[in-house]
Amino acid sequence: MDEVSNKCDNIHSTSDASNKRTCPLAVYDCRDVQLYESSLQEHYTSEQHQKSLVRCAQSIMESMNGVSSEADTDMKEEKTSLVENYEKLSIITRNTETIHDQLIQTDVEMLRCDQQNSTLLQELNNIQTTNSLEKAYRDTISFNQNILRQDIIMLEQQVADESQIIKEGPDGTIVWKIINVREKTYDAQSERQTSI
Asked: Between vectors from CA 61 to CA 60 and to CA 66, what angle results, nearest 5°?
């Protein structure tokens, strides 16, 4: 009989152990005792459990407020950062548009300068061609002037020779002056010239 009684006590204690529960609010100073399922209703309505429930709710709200205020702070910082980045991007976009317009204007100016350079190069080539022609013309004129000078010198010499050869005297007589008599005599003798 003792055996049966021991077995019954063991079954009852095992069944009691499986029916024991710990209050989930034990970390918030709720009694850290083992509760039976039958006494849970009474425990949940106890003043101790209600105070622990209030502490738990306050803790949750504080942590939510901390998370919420951190999130609000983070959101404000992110919004400020986004606004600053948007303003910077707007400035960069305007600057990029200005630079693009300046590049287009520079391209137009470079094209105009290239056209002017081509025109000036053509004019320079024309001037060089004209200068070459004028130089050739001046050289020809200079050459012709030298020939004319020599002709004038020869004519002056002939006139001087002629004026020395024929002189009319005061009484109307003409005096011939013959120069290079020896050459002229030799020419007449060799029949290169028929008379002196």
From this structure: 100
d(CA 133, CA 121): 18
CB 140 within 8 A of CB 122: no
List helix spans (H) across the chain. Answer: 2-19, 40-44, 47-165, 181-189
Ordered per-residue pLDDT tens for the chain, 196 residues? 445 444 444 434 444 556 677 777 777 777 656 677 777 778 778 888 788 888 888 888 777 766 666 677 778 888 888 889 889 999 999 999 999 999 999 999 999 999 999 999 999 999 999 999 999 999 999 999 999 999 999 998 888 776 665 555 567 676 666 777 888 888 888 777 655 5
Q: Are 63 and 48 in contact (CB under 8 A)?
A: no
Please indicate, yes or no, if residue 14 is contained in any of the structural domains. Answer: no
Collapse the DSSP code of 175 into the 3-class scheme (helix H, G, I; strand E, B; otherwise coil) and give the result: strand
Domain assignment present for 95: yes
Interatomic CA distance for residues 182 and 186, integer angstroms: 6
* C-alpha closest to that of 30 among 57, 52, 8: 52
* Residue 118 structural domain: 46-189
Say if CB 165 and CB 179 are below 8 A apart. Answer: yes
